[in-house]
Amino acid sequence: MDLISLPPCSRRLDSGKMLANGVEQSGGLSPTSTTIKISTTYLKTPVKTDQEILENSMLEDDPNSNTIITCRNSISISGINGSNSPLDASGDSTNCTATGSPNGTAGTDVLEKRPRWGPQHKGAQELAKLYSSGKRTQEIICVYICITLMVIDLFLILKHFRIERISKVLVAAMFGILTADFGSGLVHWGADTWGSVELPIVGKNFLRPFREHHIDPTSITRHDFIETNGDNFMVALPLLGKLAWNFFTRTNAEIQQEYALSAYLFLCSIFIAMTNQIHKWSHTYWGLPRWVLFLQNHHIILPRRHHRIHHVAPHETYFCITTGWLNWPLEKIKFWSTLEAVIEACTGHKPRDDDFKWAQKRI
Fold first, then answer.
1. Each residue's pLDDT tens digit, 125-169
2. C-alpha distances out from residue 61 to 164, 248, 308, 318, Å
3. CB environment 56-75: b (16+ within 10 A), e (fewer)
C-alpha cells in the first residue's frame, strides 16, 4: 500500500485572512516588514489540507470507502381498499426526522449509503455508456499514425545528432517538457471548467471523459491503451508531422542549424502524447513497474500523491498532469482562478457548472 500518509498540503488563504495573519504575527513591525511577512507566509502555505483531501476526494487505494449517508423518509398512506402506498423522499442524514403521514401514521426514516465517487455512481455510469464505436475508431487511427511518426522522427533525430550540440539539446528538451506540462494544464483546465457534455461533437467525444474521471477517478485504470491515449496522441500529431516534414524537405545544413528546435518539438510532442498514460499511472496503486515508481518518487513524471490535490472537490487546482512541475507556481500566482474570474465576468458562465451537475447524479 503506497498511500499511507498524505503530502503536506493545505487550503488557499483569501486575502483578508492572509492580511489578518500577517498583521497579527508581525506585531509592531514596519509596513515593509509586514508585507514581507505576508508574502513569505503565502508562499509557504500549501494548497489543500490533509483533512480536505481525505474528506473531499476518493480514497483510490480504497475506492469502496467513498459513500455518503442519506436518508429515505418512508411514509405509509392508507390507500383504497386498505392498501398502503409508500412515498419516498431523499435528504441529508442530518435532516432525518420522523414525520407523520396525513392520516396520522408515523413515518419511518431509513438510512442509506450512496456512492460519492466510483463506478457505482449514477453519473459515472451514464457517462461511461456514451463512449461510442466512432470514438473508438478515431482513437485507433490516431494511435497508429502517431506511433509511426514517433518512430520516424526518433530515427531522424538520432541520425542528425551531433555531440557538440548536447547542451543546446538538453535546454531545448527541458523547455519542451515544460511546454507539454503547461499545455496539459491548459487543456485540462479548459475541459474541466467550461463546456458541457451536451455540446455537439466536442461534448460526448472530448469533454465526457473529463466529467467521468471526476466522479469515477479510477475508471482510467480500467481503460486500455487505446482509450487512455487516443486523444493525446491526436494532439501530438501536428507537431510530429511538422517535424518529419522538416527533416525530409530541408538540407542537412538547415537541419543542423535548427536541431535544437527539432529536439524541443520532439520532446514536447512525446510528453504530450504520453500525458494521459502518465496520468493513468498517477491513479494506479498496484502493479506499477519499478521504473515508473522511480520516476514518480523523484517527480520526473506526475506523482500519485501530488495529483490527489487536484481531485479534492471541486477540482479547482493542480491541473498540470504531465510532470506537475508547474502546478505550485501557477497556483501561487492564482493563474487559473484569475482566468476563471475574467471569463465569468465577460460571459456570465460559472466555472465547473456542468461538472457539478454530473457529480450530483447520485440517484
1. 888 898 999 999 999 999 999 999 999 999 999 999 998 888 988
2. 47, 48, 11, 20
3. ebbebeebeebeeebbbbeb
